[in-house]
Amino acid sequence: VIELNGEIKSSLLEESFQALVQSYDVLRCNILYEKIEQPVHVVQKVRDVKITYLDISECSDREARLQEIIHDDRNRKFDISKGQLLRITLVRLAEKKYKMIISYHHIIIDGWSLTIVISRLFQYYNELCEKGRIKIVSGPSFQTYVDDVYQKEEKCFAYWKNYLKDYQNDTVLEEAQYSQKQGKKKASITLSEEDRKKVELIQSECGVTTNILLKTIIGIVIQRYMNANDIVFGEVNSGRGWNYETTENIVAMLINVLPCRITSREEQTFCDLVRSIQKQAVESNQYYGVDMVQ
After folding, report:
1. Would you give per-residue pLDDT tens digits along the chain (294 residues)?
2. What is this structure's pTM?
3. Is 114 helix (H, G, I), strand (E, B) or coil?
4. Can you tell me the distance from the alpha carbon of 156 to that of 163, in angstroms, rounded to the nearest whole number?
């Protein structure tokens, strides 16, 4: 949900949305999976799209009505085999005050892509407002990305096979038991200013990033739970690191989950460990596109 201030012309926004969908092939795609052996990714040459425009400026309780609209939109399911998998609802709250609700199916784009999509949408809208026309710019092709991944597939599998070589710990952490009434709870930790400075000092002394530092700490915690010095856990990544110049502007679903192996030795210092994990991450970076399920 995005807050918009200023006068928004719904007709121009819809025209901008149409241009946006024409710019990226995945926004014109559907997944066919029924009565066929393998799912098929189908891209339409042209797809006509509409936005939903609602004016609730005269409602007595606009906030309640807005939440109702958001709730209804959240509960509207997508059919991946037909229709658009990205939709926009523009809600007018008052003069020069709007909320824009963007919903999409995660099978076509990830969070990284959404940032690109929103930026391009408003780029087109501003062009229409200022120049009265849009210069459609086609984004990087998802098909090109897929072709590149297939070309590297054998090399990627060889890398990850070697990466997991000699790993023998088949212990699995059990999910914590909880009752239906309790449900799952989210825990968060806020570092004090003093602790934050200590973390920054460790990063500086070891010469590693925050991500590597936290990943290593998570690995050490898992090691303690499993009573092992060699563990593997799944790490979510953007899927864009292996060829960043090509992949950073692709609109698609590229996130992936790949193994992260934390192996520590008794004589090893903490800095030595995090440096080894950082080196490992740099080496792995170019092999992120592989499908590990295979």
Report:
1. 899 999 999 999 999 999 999 999 999 999 999 989 999 989 888 899 999 999 999 998 999 999 999 999 999 999 999 889 999 999 999 999 999 999 999 999 999 899 999 999 999 999 999 999 998 888 888 888 888 878 888 888 888 889 989 888 776 766 655 555 566 677 788 889 999 999 999 999 999 999 899 999 999 999 998 888 999 998 888 877 666 567 788 898 888 888 899 999 888 999 999 999 999 888 888 787 766 555
2. 0.78
3. helix
4. 10
Give 139's DSSP letter.
Answer: P
Taking the C-alpha atoms of residue 114 and residue 262, their distance in angstroms, rounded to an integer, is: 32
Report DSSP letters for 232-291, one per residue. EEEEEE-S-GGGHHHHTT--S---EEEEEEEE--TT--HHHHHHHHHHHHHHHGGGTT--
Residue 166: CA count within 13 A, CB half-sphere: 2
Q: Which two tokens stand for residue 145?
A: 């990305």
Residue 140 CB neighbour total at 10 angstroms: 17
Distant-in-sequence, close-in-space partners of 19: CB < 8 Å, separation ≥ 6:
124, 134, 136
37 DSSP assignment: S
Q: Could you tell me the two tokens for 86?
A: 């990205």
State how far the Cα of 217 lies from the Cα of 262, in Å rounded to an integer: 10
Helix segments in the chain, DSSP class H: 10-23, 62-74, 111-131, 142-163, 193-206, 210-226, 244-247, 270-284
Parallel/antiparallel/unpaired status of strands 230-237 and 256-263: antiparallel
